[in-house]
Design a protein that fits this description.
Rossmann fold; 7 helices; 45% helix; 4-stranded mixed sheet; alpha/beta
């Protein structure tokens, strides 16, 4: 791993919690400060998704081989597909000096915690399971069975997110503007503190 650049930021939360919307807003407002680590996945692209932008779309055989070569920081299986963050994707962002943002699942969070990344961990909480279901149904991207699996997974993710010390902050996304303000303030306080600490350590 290349240990350059400020502390990475991990955004985690159930599908439909709004983490992707918060992420897009952050990248749009601060394009020079943040860089997105593009994950790999074996699922097919959804309408409008571009390879190398939203995900690196790959095959199961290729991804398994890359994992065996030790090229991934974290991997997870979700709804029958594989997802993962490659070391190269994170290194590419960190070399620029930008704050690297990872959008990963719970299993990925558990794995990243065992690495030397030392990321800031943010959990985005939906207002309720009922609201989450409404948002997922509004997408109209999945069959009923797949939707039920996502909701079951979301319940487990929320339980993990609520447990003390699993994340540095839990942001309740019942109002997007409020949630975004909370995210910005958390990053400003923690990233600046960390960078100042790093500079003083380097000068010793």
């Amino acid at each position: 791993m290349v240990q350059k650049g400020p502390r990475p930021l991990v955004l985690c939360g159930p599908s439909g919690s709004g983490k992707s919307t918060l992420l897009k807003r952050l990248l749009k407002e601060f394009p020079d400060k943040f860089g997105f680590s593009v994950s790999h996945t074996t699922r097919s692209p959804r309408p409008g998704e571009k390879d190398g932008v939203h995900y690196h779309f790959t095959t199961k055989d290729d991804m398994v081989a890359a994992i065996q070569r030790g090229e991934f920081l974290e991997t997870a299986n979700f709804s029958g597909n594989m997802y993962g963050t490659s070391k190269h994707a994170v290194d590419e962002v960190r070399r620029t000096g930008k704050i690297c943002i990872l959008d990963i699942e719970i299993e990925g969070v558990k794995q990243v915690k065992t690495t030397d990344l030392d990321p800031l961990l943010v959990f985005v909480m939906p207002p309720s399971i009922e609201e989450l279901e409404r948002r997922l149904r509004a997408r109209n991207t999945e069959h009923e069975e797949a939707l039920k699996k996502r909701l079951e997974t979301a319940k487990r993710e929320i339980e993990y997110g609520k447990e003390p010390e699993n994340f540095h902050i839990i942001i309740l996304n019942d109002n997007l503007d409020k949630a975004y303000t909370e995210l910005r303030e958390f990053i400003a306080q923690n990233v600046e503190d960390k960078e100042e600490g790093t500079e003083s350590n380097d000068s010793k």
